[in-house]
Design a protein that fits this description.
Elements lengths: L1 H15 L33 E9 L2 E9 L5 H10 L3 H5 L12 E4 L4 E5 L12 H12 L7 E6 L2 E2 L2 E2 L5 E2 L12 E2 L2
Parallel strand pairs: 2-9, 4-5
Antiparallel strand pairs: 1-2, 3-4, 5-6, 7-8
Helix pairs in contact: 2-4
InterPro entries: GerMN
Protein name: GerMN domain-containing protein
Organism: Paractinoplanes aksuensis
Length: about 180
């Protein structure tokens, strides 16, 4: 009995003394947003701008970079930005891409899964950075709030693609499949 009384007293003190007054209605809270690549305070986002994450390449590793745009792009538009590669400013910091000139087609499936159709790569132009290319796409799309996983296809058929460890899968991929390749910007 004494123990129960002590627990109740402690609970009342903790709940009542946390410093937050009770409110009848919920209210919004403005939290500070910083670029994913900056540990401290980043530049302020102007009203009407959104931050979109693109995953680029530096020294054989994946690097998340943030671009400010007037509105959040559709999956296809974000893939096109990714295929266009880094801006001159991003290039000056050593960022590049494993996707230059690739024609990618992306769309949302049911739920939070995106599908990306990739072209048949020319055998004469075989890429040794294929893992980075798939990692760029997966890490870019799964940084979106509406995408949880990415599936790759070619001509409508499921495609086996490499994870960071080199194993192949035809199933949904997540950013965790390429986490060992991600480094801070």
């Amino acid at each position: 009995m004494r123990r129960a009384w002590t627990i109740m007293t402690v609970a009342v003190v903790l709940l009542g003394g946390c410093g937050v007054r009770a409110q009848d209605e919920p209210h919004g809270v403005d939290l500070p947003r910083h670029p994913l690549t900056t540990p401290g305070a980043g530049p302020a986002v102007a009203a009407g701008e959104v931050a979109q994450v693109l995953c680029l390449v530096r020294d054989g590793r994946l690097v998340q970079t943030v671009r400010r745009t007037p509105s959040y792009p559709a999956v296809q538009a974000q893939l096109e930005s990714l295929a266009d590669g880094p801006t001159p400013e991003e290039r000056s910091t050593g960022l590049g891409t494993a996707l230059t000139g690739q024609s990618l087609t992306g769309r949302m499936l049911a739920g939070a899964e995106a599908t990306v159709d990739v072209p048949d790569f020319d055998e004469g132009n075989a890429r040794n950075d294929e893992i980075l290319a798939y990692g760029q796409i997966v890490c870019t799309l799964t940084a979106r709030a509406d995408v949880g996983s990415v599936v790759f296809t070619r001509d409508g058929q499921s495609l086996q693609v490499p994870r960071a460890d080199g194993t192949l899968t035809g199933g949904p991929l997540h950013s965790s499949d390429y986490a060992r390749l991600l480094v801070p910007g």
